[in-house]
Amino acid sequence: MGEPLWRPSQTEVQSANMTAFIARARHDWDISASGYHDLYDWSITRPEEFWASLWDFTGIVAEQRGERVLVQPGAMRDARFFPDAKLSFAENLLRQYDDTLAVIFQCEDRIRRTVTRRELYDLTSRIVQALRDAGIQDGDRVCAVLPNIPETLACMLATNSLGAIWSSCSPEFGVRGVVDRFVQVEPKLLFGIDGYFYKGRWFDTTSAVKEICARLPSLERFIRVPYHSAELPRRVTQGSPGTTEAAFWDWIAPFEPGGIPFYRGSFDQPAFILYTSGTTGVPKCILHGAGRVLIQLCKEHWLHFDVKPGDRFYYFTTTGWNMWYTLVTAMAAGATVLMYDGSPFFPEQDTVFDFADREGMTVLGTSPKYIELIKKADLCPYRTHRLADLRSILSTGSPLVPDSFDYVYRNIKPDIRLSSISGGTEIMTTFANGNPIGPVWRGELQVRSLGMRVEIYDEKGRPVRQQKGELVCTAPFPSMPIGFLNDPGDVRYHDTYFSRFADVWCHGDFAELTAHDGLIIYGRSDATLNPGGIRIGTAEIYRSVEEFDEIADSLVVGQNWDNDLRVVLFVKLRDGTALDDDLRDRIRKRIREFTSPRHVPAKIVQIEEIPYTVNGKKVELAVRNVIHGWPVESTSSIANPDALSLYENIPELRT
Q1: What is the CA radius of gyration of the chain?
Q2: pTM value?
Q3: Which CATH number belongs to the domain containing residue 227 in this structure?
Q4: Is the pLDDT of residue 651 over 50?
Q5: Buried-exposed string 593-624: b where 16+ CB fall within 10 A, e elsewhere
């Protein structure tokens, strides 16, 4: 079985929030939990006790919690948590009013700003007053095309403070990507940025935002936000007919900072709208509740991430990804949010680690793709940077391959907790997460998340261990979405998550529960390959392929062929490398050795570009459709949609 890559020291275990929580639970509920696995078992077998304890431990601010914690626990979709609670998501993030830093913002090598908690509260207060003056009230919808800047955070908090519903997209989504989403939401007010920086270039978005406004019939008011008003010239756009337009700082100028009368709604108060990936059709709008999201993100920060007051928490994310909410909720735990906007590789490949050293970063959140790219670039921050304060690295978005675990411990920092985590936009939390008091095993997600009854089902719906199957959740959890917008009777919601197994959340991940009680994610179930009737997760192939220095990137799909399905591997090669028979043979040999003969690609094809979603996930299903000549219903979520044309009519796939 070997040795883990990392174990916490006795000091780290003793000082962990998780340890304090276990002690509190033992005292309050007379349980015998002595470690994480006992705690996990208690959290899923006695959920009322667990969630009540978590509420109290994290100090959730509320008008009232109520005595009832969980109603109808046996009904997956009808269960309700904290039905009598009254709270505000924004109030919990703005619970401190002092001169400690709320946000440190960095835009590549151009802009650095700091915002104290007092300044953030005061700015939010002014926006609240301006929104109210514009007629925004609870239940209204406010949308934003904004990058990861402090003003975005303040606008979100202000919207939530009024009980209105917030939804955001990052500006690189493009006009169609934004309109496909926001036209379903029907916003009354839109915040839009005038541009953004990426790789040192300024991208003006004024004409794009103008077009977005024109295509949103419900829009009554547009607020133009400058990226950095002190350095950039004012840009003026015309709003769409019937839309009143204002410049952000002029709009809030009449209002003085003051106390915020937070709207304290129910635990299920609609608060945020996020979106499905949109790679198989128009993105579906997922409606999330304020308390539902808050308690899960507090659980992650306090317990799984071990965030403490004074920490500096970074996650590379855009405002269109659910990890943005994870990033900013670090404030509730007393941490300073490290916001970064732009390319993480500009002006240098090690820009993120420069940022980490300069700002005293304690938690670094990123994606497997980023780790793969710095590994291919042969970066060794362990030698070039101090990283003295960095305790933890988080990775999510896709499976983290075992070789990337090795790279982190060899080239970044040997004494660090590397937590590969997995969840989704649909649940605004994780099914598998980190454990600050337990070991890290190569290639594994450390633990199943507290309060989430996660199992792996075989095709007949039977729970299995050390065997691949469907990742499911078999009991209610707080952050289940309220539902999809424009979905009468919750038909699409049911079909998406509950149609496979009765009254069980089927997440759509192909996974395995390991001997260490951790998880391995093999890829999305809908992208799973099935040659000869054997199910294969695409991540299993990526794990082998990405170890080749010659290969910069890859994508694998299944192609219908001769009444079966064959595996097709597309490889993007590094400059100066050719796909010859020798490289093909070595790829096939390695895949066969580390997986099985069934995994070996029938075709290996060189390609110039791999398509990704704007959130950094490989677009396997759209490529599969293209090679078969099937329509791709929507490309609005694809960052580089032109790349799909490279997969049309490939001669190698005709034989």
Answers
A1: 24
A2: 0.90
A3: 3.40.50.980
A4: yes
A5: eebeebbbbbbbbbbebbbbbbbbbbbbbbbb
